[in-house]
Specification:
10 strands; globular
Length: 523
């Protein structure tokens, strides 16, 4: 589980941030005592792994979609509601964080060839890993902000104050070039002690995703097809997200954590107060309603046999694996079974019972780590790329090309549904109607990848449906409260302006110090 690498990440971060050592800066090109040994290169490379995505963004980007709500993270909540601007802390923080990370990868490239105590095979592999990381940063920046400054070398502060925005197409071409080279440089696998590093498969999967996002469906499908059969679906969907299965063959790339040395605390925002949590991230009824019944029909379909009075019975098992609902039974930290009651006013976990309890009637089970230190500090890895996404990328690309057939169905959607435990009509090929297939694959992405790395946040934007799903009230469980729509409690009122909200604004703090940075439309 990459334990040694995690420890090296911690060491690297300590060295690079230390103010007590009288040394030339650790990441400076002029450093004479660094960039000599294999260990030097590894320490720095491992440090830039920590920049892939922090756990906070991994989780809370999902609160900007129609899947979840956050009551405690105001700046995320403001983006979700459409009430934000270029001074928003998330907008500013993501920009600065990604550019700081790009600077570190540029430093790596400027120094890796100076390391003499390393084999050429290692050097090539290290470069491939760094190319992937830098390409990922630019991918996120262009998805969020559109045209952005493009930097592939170390620059001075003075130079940074005169940067202009480069058009997205130019940066996208660079991303593809870097990832294609990384595919050639990266190994398929590593030794056990190196497990967790970026592989050739990860580079192929990411490149396929980016092509899909840009409606380059032939390229997306061809790349995804390269991985068909190279990985396998883990047989138990819920167990996939547990510490003991972090090396499952389905997992292509994860954010690496390990108890004590490198932990995250997102669990505090997910689990019920009775287990020591604070409901800072809560699933919405809109997501719950997207899970079909066991036979694959949407709950509003007469064939679904859905019972609104027993809403969690006869449902897609991925609902139970992902979301804690009223009457939910789970294993507590002491190993005993506990029942979570989320009905309005029920202590301590009920809807709005206290400031710690859920505002929607739901908590999150998907990333629940019963081995977490102090119940909230977890060493559970967070999955960035897995084989299920590759199957969904392939299915969507083939559908958009008008080439999706029964064999493709069996390889992708049926395989995912069988793994989840769906039955009967849910497994049958629905035919070749593109609109029907498009609706199926989009909903499969939503429920299969729920709360993982902001997939839904990016999906609703690339599909240009955000103005439909992020406009109006979001909802929680059914209650008798007078503010409810059809009995479902209103949680938050959102607006989405398609004339500007598909891109975040360029941070005001950046434009204040650099007059060359233009602003996105209508900001």
């Amino acid at each position: 589980m990459m334990k040694r690498i995690i420890i090296l990440i911690a060491i690297a971060m300590q060295v690079s941030c230390s103010s007590d050592l009288d040394l030339t800066p650790y990441d400076s090109q002029s450093e004479l005592t660094f960039w000599q040994t294999e260990e030097d290169a590894k320490v720095y490379l491992n440090a830039i792994y920590a920049d892939l995505m922090n756990a906070d963004q991994y989780l809370f980007l999902n609160s900007l979609s129609d899947d979840a709500y956050t009551k405690g993270r105001e700046e995320y909540r403001n983006i979700a509601s459409g009430s934000y601007g270029p001074t928003n802390g998330v907008v500013t923080g993501v920009w600065s964080g990604r550019y700081e990370a790009i600077r570190r990868t540029n430093i790596f490239f400027n120094n890796i060839d100076n390391v003499s105590e390393i084999t050429e095979e290692q050097r090539v592999s290290f470069k491939g890993q760094a190319r992937f990381i830098r390409a990922l940063h630019y991918f996120y920046l262009t998805e969020l902000y559109g045209d952005v400054p493009f930097i592939t070398d170390e620059i001075s502060i003075e130079e940074s104050l005169n940067l202009e925005r480069t058009d997205e197409a130019t940066i996208l071409s660079f991303i593809y070039s870097e990832l294609n080279q990384a595919i050639e440089e990266l190994p398929r696998t590593y030794s056990n002690e190196e497990n967790g590093r970026i592989t050739r498969g990860a580079a192929i999967a990411l490149t396929s995703r980016i092509h899909l996002y840009h409606e380059e469906y032939q390229e997306a499908a061809s790349l995804a097809q390269e991985l068909l059969g190279e990985y396998t679906l883990f047989p138990d969907y819920g167990a996939l997200f547990k510490t003991e299965n972090e090396t499952a063959n389905e997992i292509i790339l994860s954010l690496q954590y390990v108890p004590v040395d490198r932990e995250h605390n997102i669990q505090y925002s997910l689990i019920p107060p009775s287990l020591g949590g604070y409901a800072n991230f809560s699933p919405l009824q809109e997501l719950v309603d997207s899970y079909p019944t066991l036979n694959g029909y949407a709950i509003d379909d007469p064939m679904a046999n859905y019972d609104e009075d027993a809403p969690y019975q006869n449902r897609d098992p991925r609902l139970k694996a992902t979301i804690i609902y009223d009457g939910y039974q789970m294993t507590g930290f002491d190993g005993n079974q506990v029942t979570i009651n989320t009905a309005p006013g029920v202590a301590p976990d009920g809807l709005n019972y206290s400031s710690n309890s859920t505002p929607t009637g739901y908590y999150v089970h998907k990333f629940y780590d019963p081995m977490a230190r102090n119940q909230t500090n977890s060493g559970l890895n967070l999955i960035l790329i897995r084989y299920a996404e590759v199957l969904l990328n392939y299915a969507e690309a083939k559908i958009e090309l008008g080439e999706f057939n029964e064999q493709d169905w069996n390889t992708t959607i049926r395989a995912l549904r069988e793994r989840a435990g769906l039955q009967g009509a849910a497994l049958e090929f629905p035919g070749t109607n593109q609109d029907v297939l498009r609706e199926i694959v989009r909903n499969e992405r939503r429920i299969e990848l729920a709360f993982e790395a902001g997939h839904r946040f990016f999906d609703i934007r690339r599909w240009k449906i955000a103005e439909d799903v992020l406009e109006g009230w979001t909802h929680g469980i059914k209650t008798d409260e007078s503010t409810a729509d059809d009995g479902y409690i209103r949680v938050s009122l959102r607006t989405f302006d398609p004339s500007r909200h598909y891109l975040w604004p360029i941070p005001q703090s950046e434009r204040d110090i650099n007059n060359n940075l233009t602003q996105n439309p209508n900001w």
